[in-house]
Write a structure and sequence with these properties.
- There is one protein chain.
- The chain has one domain: Rieske [2Fe-2S] iron-sulphur domain (Rieske Iron-sulfur Protein, 3-layer Sandwich).
- It has no helices and twelve strands.
- The strands form four sheets. Strands 2-3-4-10 form a four-stranded antiparallel beta sheet, with no helix packed on it.
- The chain is mainly β.
- The structure holds FE2/S2 (inorganic) cluster.
- FE2/S2 (inorganic) cluster binds near residues 56, 75 and 80.
- Keywords: 2Fe-2S, Heme, Iron, Iron-sulfur, Metal-binding, Nitrate assimilation, Oxidoreductase.
Length: about 110
């Protein structure tokens, strides 16, 4: 597991503000972060919002699901899929997305940024 020595925890939203089995976009400084509440798995994930295929800011609007045990998001434009855990492109392409750690404490959702 990656050591999080320089991680700053950004307060993203209240748990009740999240979209069940979907994503929301969080703006942090000059970057957009897609935050996903995978209700069926009771897990949270965060990735860059930009799809690397055509550089569209769209992944927070993607459809989430599973490939076996791997949680994934599908870009709504051309359906390329990415692991929500590792960011790896599961469609066989070389592109990958950045992922961020997420934690939930006292009803608030935090995203770990460097
Ligand atoms: S822009 Fe996301 S798959 Fe093409």
């Amino acid at each position: 597991m990656k050591t999080l020595t320089n991680t700053k925890w950004l307060t993203a939203c209240h748990v009740d503000d999240a979209v069940e089995n979907g994503g929301v976009c969080i703006k942090h400084e000059d970057q957009q972060i897609a935050l996903f509440y995978f209700t069926r798995r009771n897990e949270w994930f965060a990735t860059q919002n930009e799809c690397p295929h055509k550089r569209q800011m769209i992944l927070s609007r993607g459809m989430i699901g599973s490939l076996g045990e791997e949680p994934k998001v599908a870009c709504p434009f051309h359906k390329k899929t990415f692991s929500l855990r590792t960011g790896e492109c599961l469609s066989g392409d070389e592109c990958a997305i950045k992922t961020f750690p997420v934690k939930v404490e006292d009803g608030l959702v935090y995203i770990g940024v460097e």
